[in-house]
Design a protein that fits this description.
The structure holds two protein chains of two kinds. By secondary structure, chain A is α+β, with helices and mostly antiparallel strands. Chain A contains 27 helices and 47 strands. The radius of gyration of chain A is 38 Å and the shape is elongated. Chain B has one helix at 34-42; strands at residues 4-7, 11-14, 19-23, 50-56, 64-70, 75-80. The interface between A and B is medium-sized, with 24 and 27 residues.
């Protein structure tokens, strides 16, 4: 393993070697390495194969921006090798090659198939015959794609925290500009959050030998109270909210002011063979050498079209890397820098650029030449043997977030960049993203943006304003005479036939863009979609400018006229798991949940609740209720206390029947309707005393009913209060012929039918637990709903169960209530159901003088026949139709089954169905079509069990 | 959609903390003619601009309050308890 000499600023700790494996073979790196730097140091130049042609691809940017370094780590595909810190024992595998990285059968597409696979080939090729598509699809799916998900996934171990953070100033990017902006804003008193993608803040400073300045700035930021999020990617700008993904946390940062200091991305050069492993960005080469002490090659050639390439060449040389030659497309400018390079023994070839690279799966030779305006090689090309070509084709500002925020990008020919401008209010740019690239002006630009942001929020004073003005002047002076840039040609070539890639992620060549333009896809948005250039994981970081340039070349338009494609989030590839958040299913459990578990209950979701569905034998449980005594946990019922002098008035306005006339201690059933007269919920109301009502709602409707009540109350402002006690009060229903006897054994209350009749509500102690006892009969037997403080629920449950009441679950309850035609709102009603269509017309009292919600609509409904009626039915053949099965008449669907069960007590298949009014009479025959099966049923309008309610009242 | 609202009881929170109650429409004092009733039940003005609307602090104090919001920009002009609303 070869490394460059130890220097300040390197990330690796040579005293801590780490072992890992690549494609099963053991490898070694150091603590502080990334996967890519460790592999590179170990001589591995190829990490994966490309998307379409399965070409070998190697390191490019060294900072996790491209798709070249995607590997599978411990089974998880799509990990960016050059950004992922190495960990001991990691199992790293290549992606996109079969059977091996070195020998990939699919690479045949590259050799033979590329003429057959131009852009859009699958739209054209695999159309006919249509029946073969499934076969084509299988082959294509195998051929394309990045990485492979394991067939079997472990139980989801990924939990993302959502974190909300409000601050004054959010700074995106932790390079010199971002750090300066954050520092300045924080020093002026602002609450600042800074996020940075890298392992540590500092940006280019870290690689360019100014790590001390970087660390100093970061330390001062921390001191000033800046919250620095490292390894945190800003995914997008959403109406002032910036989503930042940091490992297991998704931060949602909302700030009053934003500073985008997102930097600029060095661009590749387009020439034949430009994707060979060994061709990388000059910044990538520098990162390898400066941060990880890895020499990018034995012999490095640099090809650039602006100052940065020269600087990086010199930095590489100073780090001990052997730089053979530097090709600079510009004929003049930056003479001092060129002289320094020459003094270091590096050949400088002005006016030349890379026009071709060759090698067998690895760069071996580069051809440099002068080029004409269209990029064709002129004069005598120079061939240089090397194993690393570091290119610098200018830079593209990482303006995506700014553009998402509403800024516009315009092409600046002098700067050879699309620079963002017309920033929306509250948004600043700083540093390279707005063209202030050299460290000194980036620092000034950042400081100024930080000051402007904080000053705009009212921090600082006149002195700070003056300082900002001074900085503005100095920045203008510093950027007055920029180093000359020369736009590289869209394609520089010496005429060889090898592919020149515009987009490495998607394997799009310069030829493909020309081909698409020739087919008429001559706008950048169309070209993008047709060729898929810029649509890969790097989101056009290295390909957008090249694609625009290629299209401009092909269409004769200027770059400004071609423009950029719309910037959309996410800017950084993000696992869906991070966006989906943690499996946040707020399960509500009743105070008795443990008892149900112990009793072996089948627990299922019912809305937000985890409920006991049955205890193993629903039919037997239902029979136990009817023949002896049963006990069900109904703590899930919504429970509201409505109290105050006008509580009765409030309820009268909300329910279609009269609640204010209830006598204390009595209970009434009520439905709730919308203004349109549709049923929204149902439940019971018990008047506890003159001013207090105890309201129960359906289990799933509790929150909505509370909201509904308090909404109207907010408008009417009656003298009444609404308190939701759902969570604090447990409830259980003791029902069955022996229920009264069991209750009597546990309470001093007189439980006789005379003293405690049907629909009475009484307070009393049961088994020593203070209870509100409601005599209601949802299941159709004599029953007592016992409401008690949740902490006492277990004691009460145990005492009752000990006397032989059999616990029963939701399923037997559904059988029992169906026997009684007791509807379930939402099951037997839908959003169109009125009380009249749900056999609940009796619960609407239009003769009451009081106005109520839905009254006007119901008055109209009462006058006409409802379009459907809810009726009971019996299937004489014993079939149990599915819930939701269609009721048909002469082949036309006229209704549907809403509930159906087999009643063990009655020995019948029973149900409820919405049917046409004509069929809503006893004995009417209806036909149910259930998944092709024809089921005959007979309508029965009265409850199947105890139609007169004698059992209930006994 | 993403913005913040200031609950009159709890203070400024993300919009996802709140439930939306729609634009404020006055309930007729007495039964209106059918056409007006349908308008009241089913139709909304749906203005492009400042709109008076109901919000409930669902994940907080659970109180309803009024707000005026510019539906084009999501700028919230004010929030207030119903009895204190301008």
């Amino acid at each position: 393993m070869s490394r460059l000499p130890q220097r300040e600023g390197q990330r690796i700790d040579r005293s801590r070697p780490l072992g890992f494996s690549f494609d099963g073979k053991p490898r070694q790196g150091f603590a502080g390495d990334t996967i890519a730097s460790a592999l590179y140091a170990d001589g591995q130049r190829v990490f994966s194969r490309s998307f379409k042609y399965h070409r070998k691809r190697g390191e490019i940017c060294g900072c996790g921006q491209c798709a070249n370094s995607l590997v599978t780590v411990d089974g998880a595909p799509g990990v960016r090798a050059c950004a992922e810190p190495l960990a001991d024992g990691m199992a790293v595998e290549h992606q996109n090659a079969w059977p091996s990285l070195e020998f990939d059968l699919m690479a045949a597409t590259d050799r033979f198939g590329s003429r057959l696979t131009p852009p859009g080939f699958y739209y054209k090729t695999f159309i006919k015959p249509r029946r073969l598509w499934p076969y084509y699809e299988r082959v294509l799916r195998r051929a394309a794609g990045l990485g492979r998900l394991p067939r079997r996934q472990a139980e989801r171990g990924w939990e993302t925290e959502y974190r909300r953070r409000h601050c004054d100033v959010a700074v995106i990017g932790g390079g010199v500009a971002g750090l300066a902006a954050a520092l300045r804003a924080a020093e002026l008193g602002a609450d600042v959050v800074l996020c940075d993608e890298d392992i540590e803040p500092g940006g280019l400073l870290l690689a360019e030998g100014a790590h001390e300045q970087a660390r100093d700035l970061a330390a001062r930021c921390e001191e000033a109270g800046v919250e620095i999020l490292s390894r945190a990617s800003a995914l997008g700008y959403f109406d002032g909210l910036v989503a930042i993904w940091q490992g297991d946390t998704l931060h949602q940062v909302r700030a009053d002011r934003h500073v985008a200091a997102t930097g600029a991305i060095e661009q590749p050069l387009i020439f034949p063979g430009n994707d060979l492993p060994g061709v990388m960005l000059s910044g990538g080469a520098l990162r390898l050498a400066a941060l990880y002490a890895v020499s990018p090659g034995e012999s490095v050639v640099v090809s650039t079209c602006e100052r940065r390439g020269l600087e990086n060449a010199l930095l590489l040389h100073n780090l001990g890397v052997s730089v053979a030659a530097v090709a600079d497309l510009r004929r003049e400018g930056d003479e001092e820098l060129c002289d320094s390079l020459r003094a270091a023994g590096i050949e400088v070839l002005r006016g030349t650029t890379a026009v071709g690279a060759s090698g067998r799966g690895q760069l071996a030779k580069v051809t440099l030449a002068a080029v004409d305006a269209r990029g064709r090689a002129q004069g005598h090309p120079r061939e240089i043997v090397c194993d690393c070509l570091a290119v610098c084709g200018g830079a593209a500002p990482a303006s995506s977030l700014l553009l998402q925020a509403g800024a516009r990008a315009g092409y600046e020919p002098g700067a050879n960049r699309f620079l963002p401008g017309e920033f929306p209010p509250g948004v600043n740019g700083a540093g390279a993203v707005i063209g202030n690239e050299d460290p000194a002006s980036a620092l000034l630009s950042g400081s100024l943006a930080g000051a402007e942001s904080a000053l705009a929020l009212g921090f600082g004073g006149a002195e700070d304003r003056a300082r900002a003005e001074d900085e503005r002047g100095r920045l203008e002076a510093a950027t007055a005479s920029p180093s000359p840039c020369l736009a590289p040609p869209a394609l520089a070539t010496d005429g060889r036939s090898e592919k020149a890639f515009v987009d490495l992620d998607e394997d799009v060549t310069a030829k493909d863009v020309a081909y698409a333009a020739a087919e008429g896809y001559d706008s950048i948005e169309l070209s993008k979609r047709y060729t898929t250039a810029t649509m890969g994981p790097s989101q056009g970081r290295f390909s957008q400018l090249a694609a625009v340039r290629a299209l401009a070349e092909d269409t004769g338009l200027t770059l400004g006229e071609v423009g950029l494609t719309t910037a959309r989030p996410p800017w950084t590839p993000v696992p869906l798991g991070a966006l989906a958040g943690r499996p946040f299913e707020p399960a509500k459990r009743s105070a008795l949940h443990g008892r149900h578990r112990e009793a072996g209950a089948v627990v299922k979701w019912a809305g937000d609740w985890r409920r006991a569905y049955d205890y193993g034998d629903p039919a037997a449980e239902a029979l136990a209720v009817q023949d002896d005594a049963g006990l069900i946990d109904v703590s899930t019922l919504g429970k509201l206390i409505v109290r105050g002098p006008e509580a009765g008035e409030l309820l009268d306005r909300l329910y279609p029947n009269r609640m204010s006339t209830l006598k204390p201690g009595r209970i009434r059933y009520g439905i709730l309707t919308s203004e349109a007269g549709r049923i929204t919920d149902d439940g019971t109301v018990c008047r506890l005393d003159e001013e207090t009502f105890y309201v129960t709602t359906t289990s799933s409707g509790a929150a909505a009913v509370e909201q509904w009540f308090s909404w109207w109350q907010a408008d009417w402002r009656l003298d009444a209060s609404i308190t939701d006690v759902t969570q604090g009060v447990a409830a259980m229903n003791l029902a069955g012929p022996r229920a009264r006897q069991i209750l009597a054994e546990l309470t001093e209350l007189d439980c006789s039918n005379e003293a405690f009749p049907y629909l009475d509500g009484q307070h009393g102690e049961v088994a020593g637990v203070p209870c509100l006892l409601l005599r209601i009969g949802f299941v159709g037997e004599v029953g007592y709903e016992l409401h008690c403080p949740a902490p006492n629920a277990r004691a009460l449950w145990d005492a009752i169960a000990a006397r032989g009441a059999r616990p029963f679950g939701l399923e037997p309850q559904r059988i029992l209530r169906l026997q009684k035609h007791h509807i379930l709102v939402g099951q037997d009603t839908d959003s169109e159901s009125t009380p009249y269509g749900a056999a609940l017309g009796w619960a609407v009292k239009l003769d009451k003088e009081q106005d109520f919600i839905g009254r006007w609509a119901l008055e109209a409904k009462a006058e006409s026949e409802p379009p459907t009626a809810l009726v009971g039915f019996v299937c004489p053949g014993g079939e149990v139709p599915s819930e939701g099965a269609a009721v048909v008449e002469a082949g036309v669907v006229t209704g549907q089954v809403t509930s159906s069960r087999r009643s063990p007590k009655l020995g019948q298949s029973i149900g409820l169905a919405m049917v046409p009014p004509a069929a809503a009479r006893d004995g009417a025959r209806i036909v149910i079509s259930d998944r092709g099966q024809r089921i005959e049923a007979t309508v029965q309008t009265a409850p199947f069990y105890d139609p007169e309610g004698e059992v209930l009242r006994s | 959609m993403s913005f913040v609202l200031t609950c009159p009881n709890c203070g400024t929170r993300e919009v996802t903390d709140f439930g939306f109650g729609g634009e404020v429409s006055a309930r007729p004092a007495s039964k209106p003619p059918q056409r007006e009733l349908n308008r009241y039940i089913y139709f909304r003005r749906n203005v492009a601009g400042p709109q008076r609307e109901w919000w409930v602090h669902r994940s907080g104090c659970r109180q309803w309050f009024l707000a005026e919001r510019d539906t084009r920009t999501n700028e919230v002009l004010w929030t207030a308890r119903p009895e204190e609303a301008p």
